[in-house]
Amino acid sequence: MRFDFRKRVKKAIQNWLQIVPATEQSIILTERTGFITDVIRSQLWYRGDSSELFQFFHQTDGGAESFWGSVPAKEKIRKIHSGLPAIIADTLTYIVKSDLDAVETDRAEWKEISRQTDFENLIGKAVCDTLVDGDGAFKISVDTDVSEYPIVDFVGADKVRYDYRRGVLNEIIFTTDYKPKSSVYRLEEHYGKGYVKSILYNSDGIEVGFETVPELVGVIPEVRFDGDYIMAVPLKFYTSKKYQNRGKSIFDGGKSDCFDALDEVVSQWWDAIRAGRVQKYIPECMIPRNFADGSLKPLNSFGTEFITVEQPVSETAERPKIEVVQPQIEYEAFVNAYTNCLLMCLQGLVSPATLGIDVGKMQSADAQREKKDVTGNTRNIITSALETAITKLVETILYTYDNMRKIPIRDCGEITVSFGEYAAPDFDSRVETIGKAGTYGIMSVETQVEELWGSSKDDEWKKSEVRRIMSERGLLETGDLNAELP
User: pTM here?
Assistant: First the structure.
């Protein structure tokens, strides 16, 4: 009864105020591109080929709205690509790859496996491909004719799919296209827990035998192995809101439009410079002639148009002269437009200082350091995802190695993935800071040595250095230099 009374009071107030509830509207949106098209677009931005960008945007729906899709092929304007997308991805990849200090585990064979798989370069490729494509997966395969260790590859988002059931990863499907004798076949490799299942389809989506493709003769349709694990590890840094269970490229989320606008500004800028070259107006009587036939000699001057002017016949007319005219180019306006577009492209990803770009000469050093934090935040997002993925990858590789040797799967123990400190201060700054802390007595000698040298020196050297410093300060007797520290 109490509930009904409140409901009647609410209805009475609505009638008194004459409030009419809004009607929910049905809205239908049509996506311009699909997942594979978005991945291809990101890959083309990274490749940076002007011709490929021109063809792609002319063939996609809505491409006419962009600079690359609206400029006609025969237009005289020079279409220039800035190359910024590749610079961003490569710089972030280098920062993360160079900061990867070590991957350690209790299993002794990991060192040799890491060397055989070229693990550092593998991680670098995975970071770059994931930044560009949005996601990908490490694929582990076994071929004893090639290597006695597991073979690890990284496959980009355009050749991998994921099967989730109630939010749990069930399968990772890798696809590979084969084209024997102008026919197209697609191989799907389903990586699940304890099995790898291979299926070959023709262009009509009909399953066919592996003997159809010479490269696949002898492939086993299904392989079972011990262990409740998948011989593949997915990787993504950002989560896509558009495609469920997929990652998001750093070139998505409006960045593609920003790159397009930057290319338009750069192209117009250089087109204006070309149109603003010096023009010479030379009277015909001042152009040299051939002695044989009296014809005018051609003037050789790169990029300059010559316009002939008739010689005046009036006695009071001004004497013929060469006139040099150069149009005025609004360089400042182009520079401002370029700077603003550049900042939009870099916003949320990297700071201009990271790429060596100085767009704020009048800004203070503190402001520049604050902008550099953007690169640090992006780097931290990448390393956080890598710590989890690499740990899982190392565990999966070692499990597969045990299965290759036909022995029971062993525990991998503790797997540690350590990254260095990004934008760490230089040696002089560390000496000054640590020295002050030691002078104030708020940092022990052991901590000072550890903070100063870090992983650049081994533990024995650092212990010896601690003894030396403590001895010079009178904290140890000379004869105690080789003694164990308390």
Answer: 0.77
